[in-house]
Amino acid sequence: MADIDNKDQAEMDPADMEDVEEVEEEETGEDENSKARQLTVQMMQNPQILAALQERLDGLNGSPSGYMESLPKVVKRRVNALKNLQVKCAHIEAKFYEEVHELERKYAALYQPLFDKRSDIVKAAYEPTDEECEWKADEEEELTDEMKEKAKLEEEKKDEEKEDPKGIPEFWLTVFKNVDLLSDMLQEHDEPILKHLQDIKVKFSDPGQPMSFTLEFHFEPNDFFTNTMLTKTYKMRSEPDENDPFSFDGPEIMSCTGCTIDWTKGKNVTLKTIKKKQKHKGRGTVRTVTKTVPNDSFFNFFTPPEVPENGELDEDSEAILAADFEIGHFIRERIVPRAVLYFTGEAIEDDDDDYDEEGEEADDEEGEEEADEENDPDYDPKV
């Protein structure tokens, strides 16, 4: 609807103004639902609004209606019976997860021969046959026989020009570098060491033992440490807390233990040496002091913070352990079973597909912000 300037408004009588207002209401009423949806979308894309909503929802979740308090004693007594039933449900659920763990152990034994063969191929202990290497890639489906033969000859020519590599070089290092969760842990000085990583295995606790799993990192002989295997064990609990049985939501990792790395002298990448100059307050003389301090490294993964007997941790240790548990679970659940797909990047593409729509929305937001900045007369790109 065209804007009406002040002059026109002054010339109109009250009846005309009322008519105009009514028309405006009718026209804007047609788009009311659309504008409401747009407003909702904008609100949902604002982190501050979302945080405020979440805080409000959390408050609502923890705010009983008061109905329970108004019930007669005889009804409250029956509600207590329901809560006792719920506790029994939690214990049955714990048994369910224990049996799931037993199934994981059973099927781990079935997977292991395949994982062992994978390891043999990676470290050049076994050369797969032509039949085992036959794979029909998606892009090859529409290729003619002539094009396939030409591509094969070109591939063979490339292979002749290069040295004959053994196995699949840098397999696990590439897997780590392809996964954000793991690549964030890697430092440049870690990479030469991880080139010697030949396999990662998952071992489950024996029947009758407390629930746990161990990640085994198998290395070929190298110049950095004498260990042929580094381990990380995660202890889990699958039983309701006696003090809070209703919080049970399946097995949870309670603690983890690493191992001692027998570093070759001068090769420990988890430590670094720094030199500091110190000035004597009285004499004014300066001396250089050499100190050994912790250094960022993937191999700090094998020395997690210890959980005290009382279970209380400072915020930093708690955050480190939370991230550690997430990484251990991810390696066990995703990396080991699907390593080749993380090596090729296919598993990462599958993971990214879940976020495509959200990513497009983020791009649109960014574009809108850039456009707003360009239209802002006070905008200074140098700031």
UniProtKB/TrEMBL annotation:
Q: Where in the cell is it found?
A: Nucleus
Region entry Disordered, spans: 1-37, 131-164, 346-383
Task: Please list the coiled coil stretches.
Answer: none
Biased composition, class Acidic residues, residue ranges: 11-31, 131-144, 347-383
Database matches in PANTHER family: TESTIS-SPECIFIC Y-ENCODED PROTEIN
Q: Which family does it belong to?
A: Belongs to the nucleosome assembly protein (NAP) family.
Q: What protein name is recorded for this chain?
A: Nucleosome assembly protein 1-like 1
What is the species of this protein? Oreochromis aureus (Israeli tilapia)
